[in-house]
Amino acid sequence: MKRVYNFSAGPSMLPEAVLKKAAEEILDYKGSGMSVMEMSHRSKVYQSIIGNAEQLLRKLMGIPETYHVLFLQGGASLQFSMVPINLMTNNKKADYINTGAFAKKAISDGKLFGTVNIAASSDDKNFSYIPKAFSFSPDADYVHITTNNTIEGTVFKKLPDTGSVPLVADMSSNILSEEMDVTKFGLIYAGAQKNIGPAGLTIVIVRNDLVGKHPEKTPPMLRYDIHAKDKSLYNTPACYSIYMAGLVFEHLDQIGGVKAIEKINKEKAKILYDTLDDSEFYKTAVEKEDRSIMNVTFTTPNEELDAKFVKEAEAVGLCSLKGHRSVGGMRASIYNAMPVEGVQKLAEFMKKFEVENK
Ligand SMILES: Cc1ncc(COP(=O)(O)O)c(C=O)c1O
């Protein structure tokens, strides 16, 4: 069997222990005589799978009962619309902080439903930093941020203070990677395919008082209150992805939870950033203080060498290192499931490649 170190931005690596457990249970889930893939989402067995996944996520993130946890579909991208549909309903106005490609998509969808004020933007420097000053509107229905910018490799180290205006966060690429105080947010959403499990599942964590504010003719599938009331079983959910997410949560809990993985994630990121800082050959455009510990972006002196780097890395089992097509260069996505050894191997490869190509 061959397993590579997969640095893809998502879908990305899953913990090997989780994949093995899923393989063991694939034909007969706990004596049910069927695979979770074949099981009715209304069955007692499945109710315990989804219930258990929710309880574990609540435990891992410290999510109080004053928040709903929803297991939805449509990717983080559907939340670009569901958030304004459900929340931009009082003054029909929201503040957005523009920190990159996904923030821009959220902004563009937000504009379909009301007035969008750009409270700050790092567009002036190619999204290489996180803005520190904001012009918030006092009557905004919410403030939207992208906590970790997957393509650009930046992260909010300090959350903006939005006072009593709910803070909404696209946490797709750093949920569960470091400790976060959920009560600082009105709503958190994340596509599963980075730190949670297979694609097809989107997690929404929403403060109870923020649901039910949608316009009268909102389609049921787009209403948070319906999904909350039906415990994410209004329709057939992404059953298998939820089961896998539950296994990932269980695994994370067993290894010490978010606090433990945060320590490992910081170690992994330090290995790569130290390698970049010690080199004249590699460059990273990101401001030091805003560096993501999930997505490390860098370049060699030219595009030809970038392509050579990606190709040669792939040949030694360090895969999917090509940067996003909009920024070029390389990107190492080192989510929770990337082992420290994978990052060490990459750092060694980087040093060797530098010596050979300087
Ligand atoms: C920060 C962020 N937001 C949104 C998305 C879009 O997610 P999806 O493909 O689940 O719609 C991504 C995907 O990579 C992302 O990284």
Which small-molecule species are bound to the chains here? pyridoxal-5'-phosphate
Spatial order of the strands forming the largest sheet: 2-10-9-8-5-3-4
Structural class: alpha/beta
Largest sheet: 7 strands, mixed
Q: What portion of the residues fall into strands of 2 or more residues? A: 15-25%
- What is the CATH class of the largest domain? Alpha Beta
Question: Count the helices. How many?
Answer: 9
Q: Please bin the fraction of helical residues.
A: 25-40%
Which CATH architecture of the largest domain would you pick? 3-Layer(aba) Sandwich
Q: Calculate the mean pLDDT score and round it.
A: 98
Low-confidence stretches: none
The tally of domains stands at 2
Sequence of secondary-structure elements? EHHEHEHEEEEEEEHHHEHEEH
Q: What would you say this structure looks like, in words?
A:
- With 358 residues, the protein is an alpha/beta fold.
- It has two domains: 17-254, Type I PLP-dependent aspartate aminotransferase-like (Major domain) (Aspartate Aminotransferase, domain 2, 3-Layer(aba) Sandwich); 257-357, Aspartate Aminotransferase, domain 1.
- It contains nine helices and 13 strands.
- The strands form four sheets. A seven-stranded mixed sheet has the order 2-10-9-8-5-3-4. A two-stranded parallel ribbon has the order 1-12.
- Strand 3 (93-98), helix 4 (101-110) and strand 4 (115-121) form a beta-alpha-beta unit.
- Helix 2 crosses helix 6, helix 3 packs parallel to helix 4 (101-110) and helix 7 packs parallel to helix 9.
- The longest helix has 21 residues, at 257-277.
- Bound molecules: pyridoxal-5'-phosphate (PLP).
- The site of pyridoxal-5'-phosphate has 12 residues, from helix 3.
